[in-house]
Amino acid sequence: MNAQPENTRLPKVCIVGAGCSGFTTAKRLKDYGIPFDCYEMSDDIGGNWYYKNPNGASACYESLHIDTSKWRLAFEDFPIPEDFPDFPHHAQLQQYFKDYVAHFGLRPHITFNTEVTEAKRTGDGLWAVTLSTGETKLYDALVVANGHHWDPRMPEFLGAFEGDEMHVHAYCDPFDPIDMRGKNIVVVGMGNSAMDVACELSQKPIAKRLMMAARRGVYVIPKYHKGEPLDKASAPAWMPLKLQKALGRYAVKKIIGDQTRLGMPQPDHRPLDAHPTVSSEFAIRLGSGDIEIKPNIEAKLGRQVRFTDGSVEDVDVIIYATGYNVSFPFLKDEAVKVENNHVSLFKRMMRPGVPNLFFMGLAQALPTLVNFAEQQSKLVAKYLAGKYALPSEEEMWRMTKADEALYTGNFYNSARHTMQLDFPHYVRQLMKEIAKGEARAKKQGGKLPVPARAEEAKQKAA
Ligand SMILES: NC(=O)C1=CN([C@@H]2O[C@H](COP(=O)(O)OP(=O)(O)OC[C@H]3O[C@@H](n4cnc5c(N)ncnc54)[C@H](OP(=O)(O)O)[C@@H]3O)[C@@H](O)[C@H]2O)C=CC1
């Protein structure tokens, strides 16, 4: 679709954040001629994928390669460079993002070095958005795209530690922010951050000892199978999710075999009942004796750590790869509360009863988040342009609960499993919902669900 000229009859939108969820939404709004401003607290786009992002929110480390293959993360309307490797480095992804933003002329719409410090609804339902410049601006709709891998979740263990402690969010490389050479290191967690960092630091020239504290075993899935990226072999989206998972479980078990031989505790769940941990290197490091698996930390004892099996080890550094909190520090709205790292949202975007607020990329979409909001934004743009009408509030809640049960129901209880979803299945359902909503909108004569009032209100106030 070619970008339409801005249509001032359409609502004016504020987008918070210019990471991949923010700028793909921006592109979609531009296609529909929907006026918008995008605010980014950093000096450039890219969010999490901008290494050493001066906004302090990126969790990127120097050696980070995405664990989703390039075929699965490519934008629908902007091809990924053919010469990219299967699993691009963060710098390549960031370049791909910059090329996308340049190609679609989005940069002039983004105000850099400007943080949204507060967003609240006015008495008449507009959004009053306050910026770090001190200015407050009125918008008809708000798009929250601030990401959810930036606010480190720190576990609490008994006792005190006298060595170095850090969340993996601060990790850059084996020498920054801490020189890890010759150190006894404990990495807490069994997710993808823990795998990448433990494999890197466990190499003989770096750590003296590398222990991973696992409160449960996980299935570590390799990136490749039979010479091809494993994620290329996904089930078709039309297949019922239950059947997809059953086949996936069988495949995972067959491909990875018995990891307990290498020292991994037997997982207390089935394959695919946890957010997938992906690493081809882990089995080598574990099998080579470079990584030792411990149970969880029980207590910190000065320069030692006691684990739940009673073993006590000398430790210099603890790295917490324990995940992230979902938070929107700027959003002041009674209707949206994060409880247990979770917010229920229609199609993981809208709070029923709040017609002009959208959360983009607020999901653990499998296999990736990179091109997820590009799909979600199809509903948002059509809705704001009056071409899609929502179902009733009651129906929105019913669908939301059904989706949550479908997508997260099989995942074990953990703060990291509150918003899992299967990307291809979700998109197929989303397109069906958009088609239904288009029919509803036609019946309603294309009435704008979010009228353009902000500009007029601004002029009145001036
Ligand atoms: N290469 C890549 O593309 C990478 C992608 N990522 C992605 O970034 C996101 C965040 O990943 P990550 O940073 O690994 O975080 P996750 O939330 O995925 O994993 C956190 C890990 O810490 C464990 N944990 C949490 N609290 C405690 C505790 N109190 N004691 C012991 N263990 C605890 C969790 O265990 P439990 O399961 O029991 O809750 C889990 O193993 C994911 O979507 C991931 O896929 C991350 C790194 C690299």
UniProtKB/TrEMBL annotation:
It comes from the Bacteria. Its cofactor is FAD. Residues 438-462 are annotated as: Disordered. It is found in: Microsome membrane. Residues 453-462 have a biased composition (Basic and acidic residues). The keyword Lipid metabolism applies. Keywords: Endoplasmic reticulum, FAD, Flavoprotein, Lipid metabolism, Membrane, Methylation, Microsome, Monooxygenase, NADP, Oxidoreductase, Phosphoprotein, Transmembrane, Transmembrane helix. Pfam families: FMO-like (PF00743). One of its GO terms (biological process) is lipid metabolic process. It catalyses: 3,4-dihydroxybenzoate + bromide + NADPH + O2 + 2 H(+) = 3-bromo-4,5-dihydroxybenzoate + NADP(+) + 2 H2O; heptan-4-one + NADPH + O2 + H(+) = propyl butanoate + NADP(+) + H2O; 3,4-dihydroxybenzoate + 2 bromide + 2 NADPH + 2 O2 + 5 H(+) = 3,5-dibromobenzene-1,2-diol + CO2 + 2 NADP(+) + 4 H2O; hexan-3-one + NADPH + O2 + H(+) = ethyl butanoate + NADP(+) + H2O. SUPFAM superfamilies: FAD/NAD(P)-binding domain. One of its GO terms (molecular function) is NADP binding. PANTHER family: DIMETHYLANILINE MONOOXYGENASE. Belongs to the FMO family. This is 4-hydroxybenzoate brominase (decarboxylating). It comes from Tepidicaulis marinus.
